[in-house]
């Protein structure tokens, strides 16, 4: 049985940056109701009614995973670690985006899967065999026939995007070698609860994982979690190392450790999520109050990073042009477009001092260190950043 604990109001598709905001584009803009449910049987947290993936992962997909130094480093580190630890002959990445992980592998030893055709083109052009398809049983069979079993399957910020997890794990079982490892990482519900980062819920994040939920789901596929790590990436993620039940791997002590911490944190109780929902409502009130106050004082406020996450914040809190002037983002194909739902203009990075910015809301709060390092002069000149994670505040 699934129970709703959070309603984040009507939301647009986060990837649907608008080229212009005339009456016909606005009429066509798609909205859905973003309600979040907790499954009382397997403890999985998901969107109640996910959006059709065909609407989301199109050939105009905007996000480029290589846009931050932090993620470039993180992918390099995990690629080297996995190569050293598992010595795979053949590897595969599910959701390869613009190839930020792939580039750490020899082109002949890795296969990429990426349903967004514009992104798949980038890695195919670079010489990586890329299937521009959704990950499913049919594709797994096709890959098995062409390339044989895969020793390492890696996936970052993708498995949580797929509504049908049974299909995901079934497909993985088909092409994973007997002692192969499936490593995937996605936002962690433990961090979302702790940081009050409700903006991790948006159309693409169909699920937000816990270790308990994943181990429950894997049982039906004769797969087990052999190791796990809690990561700081994207404001708190969890990495799972999964292998076949009859593989050579023993279960690391960290699996039990995280399981115990989840039980202590009551991630298996509906009441935890209900309490979280109250904190989210309060966060909304606080953020709107702060922005209104700055607006009354005629302060110039922008948002930093046209993130998918901030689409949830702006649409849930009804933050538009009245409260935030515009958004800046380093991703070329987001620039000079408008954010989904609230239609804030996205500009390329600016000289924040010259543009007389007083405050910048951290849409990309998960990169706050990298951004604040980049904008040292702005801060020195009296400029301030605002965050809503874990609490609404002005960073000093
Ligand atoms: O799972 C997902 C995550 C990993 O990426 C996707 N479904 C979609 C996307 O979500 P997001 O937009 O919330 O992710 P990021 O990685 O937090 O986006 C950061 C944005 O901020 C990028 O558009 C780049 C931009 N940025 C910038 O303009 N200046 C980032 C940094 C570090 C900067 O200095």
Verbal overview:
The protein is an alpha/beta fold. It contains 13 helices and 17 strands. The protein has helices at residues 23-28, 53-56, 69-86, 117-125, 137-147, 165-175, 189-195, 211-218, 253-264, 270-296, 308-317, 368-374, 376-380, and strands at 2-12, 31-39, 45-47, 91-94, 110-113, 129-131, 150-156, 176-187, 207-208, 223-231, 237-244, 301-304, 327-328, 346-347, 359-362, 384-387, 393-395. The strands form three sheets. It has a seven-stranded mixed sheet with strand order 6-5-4-7-8-11-10, with helices on both faces. A six-stranded mixed sheet has the order 14-13-12-15-16-17, covered by helices on one side. Strand 16 and strand 17 form a beta hairpin. Helix 5 (137-147) packs parallel to helix 6. It binds ligand DWN. Ligand DWN binds at residues 63, 67-68, 157, 204, 234, 305-309, 329-331, 334, 364, 366-367, 370-371, 374.
List the secondary-structure elements in sequence, H or E: EHEEHHEEHEHEHEHEHEEHHEHEEEHHEE
Amino- and carboxy-terminal Cα gap: 45 Å
Structural class: alpha/beta
Bound molecules: ligand DWN
Largest sheet: 7 strands, mixed
**Percent helix range:** 25-40%
Question: Which segments are poorly predicted (pLDDT under 50) over 5 or more consecutive residues?
Answer: none
Q: Give the helix tally.
A: 13
Share of β-strand residues: 15-25%
Tertiary shape: globular
Q: For the largest beta sheet, what order do the strands appear in spatially?
A: 6-5-4-7-8-11-10
Task: Let me know the average pLDDT.
Answer: 98
The total strand number stands at 17
Radius of gyration (Å):
21 Å
